[in-house]
Amino acid sequence: MTAMPSHVPVVIVGGGQAGLSVSYHLKQRGIEHLVFERETAAHTWSTQRWDTFCLVTPNWQCDLPGHPYDGPDPDGFMKKDEIVAYLKAFVAKVKPPIREGVAVTRVERREDGLFSVRTSEGDYTANEVVVASGGYQVPIVPRMAEKLPGSIMQMHSNQYRNPAQLPQGEVLVVGSGQSGAQIAEDLHLAGRRVHLAVGDAPRCARFYRGRDVVAWLADMGYYDMTVDHHPLRDGVRDNTNHYVTGRDGGRDIDLRRFALEGMKLYGLMEGYSDGELRFRDDLKHSLDQADRAYNGINAAIDRYIAENGIEAPAQAHYAPVWEPAEPVTSLVLEQSGITSIVWCIGFSPDFRWLDASVFNGAGSPKHKRGVTSEAGVYFIGLPWLNTWGSGRFGAVGRDAEYVVQRIQKRLATQRTAFKYAV
């Protein structure tokens, strides 16, 4: 005889800061729920970050529900171990009803309107399902990687820990987003010879006119701007994050300066064949575009300062310290000295387990502030779910509260409907 599935009003899939924030607000309202996490709560911060990893936003922006940062350095940038400790303390406060080591393998609507939730520990039913697994589940590695010689060590950014992991020799870092730029810096500071295939990521200043740029942007209301009011609308969700670092108290990352110091820069990596790595002839364009974003943010701060009559020290805009000469569009791998490659080209989501009509043609969820058109299905923790901070410690708690308010209303409506039905 097949066992009847256990029922729980709300199922949360994912036990990171997003899922835990939803659990916090559900507990505040006394709503029964379960959190399913295939690993352990908030595990990615301890298992998928390099040793020198730190936040790129100041600690004062860490504001999980009921758990604001209260350490001694609000203007600093928590290091990996401090982030893990901060999240462990959050878990201890929330005390979520979490099933760690349990994977959700299928969610689909039943004929009676409930959701069937299949997991590695058994079957459940639920009225509401919150997808809190994030958009960074599957590391992206291009097919060209399969063609590279077996003598080349390859790893994704989520596997990189420190320079000592890599064999002696030169290192190719592919991608210049936040992870790529910071890993390239980590290797560069360790004295490794680094080759960097640059992408189209923008950059921003760490400090400008006497303050952290994040503080200026917060005063300017940027972090409260919703996706509906952003000039790019939904398109902002596809933007690459600006590269900058909080390392050693925070500083700019200037790829041009790295080049002056010996790092080899190339355009976008396009392929590999016949022993040669091939790069696009767009390095100058990519560097110029990154600097344009950098100076554009600073110019917006200048306008804000002028319009509000704020006293702030003057500061010149950035001028390039290095320009690429003749473009290098190919590199003979055997002659390059490269013995390892770190792929830093991002992740893709994995929502294959969710059978619901909530995705667009590109496989991305369609939602309004995390609420989808399919009743009872919600998303949380995605970049620009509602604001810039939706995928970060700063605003995920507000997003979670909004989603939980919607859940509470739906559950109340369902209870009312059941009452009149009987």
Reading off the top of the CATH hierarchy, the class of the largest domain is best stated as: Alpha Beta
Supply the number of structural domains. Answer: 2
- Give the N-to-C terminal Cα separation: 29 Å
Compute the average pLDDT.
Answer: 94
Determine the CATH topology of the largest domain: FAD/NAD(P)-binding domain
Total beta strands: 22
Strand content: 15-25%
The shape, in one word, is globular
Q: Report the structural category.
A: alpha/beta
Query: How would you sum up the major sheet?
Result: 8 strands, mixed
Low-confidence segments, given as residue ranges, are 417-422
CATH hierarchy: architecture of the largest domain: 3-Layer(bba) Sandwich
Rg for CA atoms: 23 Å
Organism: Methylorubrum rhodesianum
Keywords: Oxidoreductase
Protein name: MSMEG_0569 family flavin-dependent oxidoreductase
InterPro entries: Auxin_biosynth/cation_transpt, CHP04046_FMN-dependent, FAD/NAD-bd_sf
Task: Walk me through what this model shows.
This protein has 422 residues and is α/β, with parallel strands linked by helices. The chain has 2 domains: 6-137 and 349-421, FAD/NAD(P)-binding domain, CATH 3.50.50; 139-343, FAD/NAD(P)-binding domain. 26% of the residues lie in helices and 21% in strands. The chain is built from 9 helices and 22 strands. It has helices at residues 17-28, 44-47, 80-94, 178-189, 213-219, 255-260, 283-307, 333-336, 396-421; strands at residues 6-13, 33-37, 63-64, 67-68, 98-100, 104-109, 115-119, 122-131, 138-139, 153-156, 170-174, 194-197, 207-208, 211-212, 264-266, 269-273, 276-279, 330-332, 338-343, 347-348, 354-355, 377-379. Strands 1, 2, 5, 6, 7, 8, 21 and 22 form an 8-stranded mixed β-sheet that branches. Strand 3 and strand 4 form a beta hairpin. Helix 1 packs parallel to helix 3 (80-94) and helix 1 packs across helix 9 (396-421). The protein is globular and about 70 Å long.
